Amino acid sequence: MKILLAMVLLALAATGCTTKSQARLKEQNAFLAGQNTVLLQQQAQTAAQTPGVTIVGPVQHPEVPWVTGLTLAQAITTANYVGADAPKQIVITRHGESAAMDAKVLLNGTDIPLEIGDVIELR
User: Fold this and answer.
1) Structural domain tally of the chain?
2) Domain-embedded: residue 85
3) Residue 11 sits in which domain range?
């Protein structure tokens, strides 16, 4: 009996013990990882189903549907800018490359054509 008990103790020592809280934490992390994966897949499907541009900043409607000839000014207007002050800088990201511009350029009447999938950040 002592030999059996010693073997069990050695086996536990070799494999390590997991507390209930450690097991619960692992379960929660696995659950959250699964949820994040599903959310990313849903976002990708939504983006594929409703092509357009995304506006990041103080706007009421960050997803602007695509229309032929969509410009930066039209997209910001459609998104309904609600910032207290006019943005100082606008960053356009297209195909992973970003370009920043002074917002005064847009406010002075120079408009920029957009493409499907552009992300516009208002700073």
Assistant:
1) 2
2) yes
3) 7-48
Answer whether 0.85 is exceeded by the pTM: no
10, 19, 62, 93 from 119: Cα distances, Å: 58, 46, 10, 5
What are φ and ψ of residue 63, in 5° steps? -100, 115
Q: What is the pLDDT along the chain (123 residues), one digit of tens a residue?
A: 666 655 655 555 655 567 888 888 888 778 777 766 765 666 666 555 668 999 999 999 999 999 999 999 999 999 999 999 999 999 999 999 999 999 999 889 999 999 999 999 999
Query: Are 43 and 62 in the same domain?
Result: no
d(CA 73, CA 118) in angstroms, rounded, equals 13
